Amino acid sequence: MSALEKSNTMTEATLGGRFTFPGTSLTVQRIGYGAMQLAGPGVWGPPKDPDGAVAVLREAVAAGVNHIDTADYYGPHVTNQIIRQALHPYPTGLVIVTKLGARRPPDKSWQPAISPEDLTAGVHDNLRNLGLDALDIVNYRVMGSGHGLEEGSIAEQVTVMADLRRKGLIRHIGLSNVTASQVAEIRRGPTRGHADAGRAGVAAAPVAQHPLNSRHVVGCPPPGEPGRRAVDTVAGNLGRVGRDRRRGGGGEALITAGSLVPSLEGPREVAGVS
Question: How far apart are CA 61 and CA 64, in angstroms?
Answer without folding.
Answer: 5
